[in-house]
Amino acid sequence: MHGGSDRNLHAADVSIFLGLDGTPTRKVGIEWTGIPEEMGYSYPYVVAILPRHVEVRNIQTQTLVQQIELPSARLLNQGKLLYIASATQIWRLTPYSFAVQVDQLVEKNEFEEAISLLQQIEPILLENKPHATTLQEEKMRTIRNLHAHYLFQRNEFDAALALFQELDTDPIEVIQMYPPAISGRVLKPSTPSEDGLNHNYSDYASDGPDRDPDDDRNNSNPWSTIVNPWSTPATEPRRDSLTITASTNRVPSVLSTWFNPQHDPQPTPPRELTGQVLEEAINYLIRFLTDRRGKTAKLLYQQQQQQQAAQSSGRALGAKASKEKDEREKMDRVAEVAKLVDTVLLKAYMMTNDALVGPLLRVQNSCDVEECEVLLLEKKKYKELVDLYNGKGLHRKSLELLSKLGQSNEGPLRGCMPTIMYLQRLGQEHLDIILEYSEWVLRTAPEEGMKIFIKDAMDDQFSHARVLAHLEATSADLSIIYLEHVILELGDETTEFHNKLAGAYLDKVLQEMMEGSEGAEGEGNDFPSAISESRSRLIHFLNESLHYWPAKILARLQLDGLFEERAVLLSRIGQHEQALAIYVFRLRNYRMAEEYCNRIFRDDPDNGRRMYLILLRVYLKPSTKEPPLVDAALELLSRHGAHIDAEEVLAMLPVTTRMDGLFPFFEKYVRETNKNRNMNLVVKNLLEAERLQVQEQWVYYRSRAVKITEDRMCPQCNRRIGNSVFAVFPTGAVVHYSCKEKIEKTQWKLT
């Protein structure tokens, strides 16, 4: 016996299948309940006569489909209509239509057999209608969907969810099978989904022309036995098999009531899942939802890209506008499914492994904020709730929660750091929120709170003024820290910021002086450390910065204090004599006055010589009633006399000055003068030697003669020189004057 390309070989009560080359095509053969006496094939079944009955098996699954009690049967044929004969009778086995057989198998929950039968038969044999192939595929999908539901009811969650995943089932349909703790308020859709799910199985029940009106949906046998008129009565079939009841009306499949509530106004609710069974079901649901989540996210991205492309192309009204509306509705539908998937996935994590809640919420997700918010608050998952708010852009709600928890004494979010880290992640567009919720942090932990603003993300010219105003209203010390960051680290040269930093330094110094710290302007007085530090920062900034207004700061200084700062500011506005007078007569610090002149001399020697002369004048001709400082002047002359004009010095010195005190000055001055005179002589002689050398070369080249003949060629253009203007190189080469520059450029490149 053979079916298709396979051959069936019988050995005792086992039949094996062989290929055309004689090798087995299947790992296992058909195990009959007895030793077959005769075998036949009727697509897609194999029939065997056994001693007591006839067996019908599916040739693909080898499952026993039907037993017919014909104990005296001896012979059978092969084909669509099977005839079985005994010594005295002949029976004809007439198969039911394949559609009826499929319905019967589904009705008995034999879904694998129904699927196998559908896979073996041609579509036209199932539905004699146009688009039979499509109808068969839809029916196959529906039966597999029912199979998945059946497996789920039998607690075979792994196989059920894997089948749902393979069928790309609507997540709503799967989620509805779980208790309210998971499914929530998900309602069963009133209409079938767009992808073909939730179809009524009765919609695919065959009512084609090959359906027998006498078919009974309670019969699972593929064949009925019809007694030949001239034969003896046939043996009755097994009573445990479902028989056919005559009817003239179309009888829908019983399975149609599974998805159609009108057949059963009070459907039996599914068995409640609890305990370990529920946990197992949720674990497999997580796998299904994770797969659907990726596909939904991809679909959302594709639809968004299409929508952006449509908007950029400027599609017109009419049919295109209607198409855009349909696309928007479809996109809304996908977005709703994505929201449901992520929300249920979060619930599943909460019930099985809450450590996965945080990673889910920290990435882009479509969780329903209201529903997840209630659940996370109930479980006290505050960190995860902050992640949820952050992902949805609800920064104000996040910061309200962080502020409340941060000011408590317990919990993982206590303290300022969670709020600081959250504010640091916000960009310039959220500056209003940053300023608002940084207030309590700056009051509680000022130094830590400054980390909110001292970071690269806030280094924007637009934000500096607003941030500074906010910090000034909070604390002057914080404004100083921020200004130092902006000016010293970021290199901001805005005059306003430099003025504010200088003013802030000055205010701090004055405040500390008023609080009881004794201010001393002299070199030998002790100054409290806090004020010394503040003043040193102020003086350093006044010396280093070039972008503040000295006159504006000078107007705020006291007349009887802060003389060093006044001297720096006077020097900035060009009042050098007044600045030096402060160093000499107010501070009594001659070293600082001398260093003042040295600094200017290093930058500009000519101006530095003038500064030494001004300092000498301050020493010898003070504008106040102070006596002349002859000794300090002589010290200055002994160190820097070489840079001061002797005539000006002699004119200013008192007539009572001792000559031995001027000896170091004259020595330095004479040495410097001789040095300069000798250096000038050397330079003069070098220039004269260079002039003579050039003159000698000029005479040499002038005395050379070049003979231009009619055959003399230019090496550049290879043309005769003739009567053209020419040039002669030191090597003796003669070229056209117009070719001279080209040859020079070539020589420069070579060198």
Automatic annotation (TrEMBL):
Residue ranges constituting the Vacuolar sorting protein 39/Transforming growth factor beta receptor-associated zinc finger domain according to the UniProt record: 703-742
Biased composition regions of type Basic and acidic residues, renumbered to the chain: 208-218
Keyword Ribonucleoprotein annotated: no
Annotated localization: Endomembrane system
Protein's name according to its UniProt entry: CNH domain-containing protein
Cited PROSITE patterns: CHCR
Start and end residues of each Vacuolar sorting protein 39/Transforming growth factor beta receptor-associated domain: 341-442
Organism this protein belongs to: Jimgerdemannia flammicorona
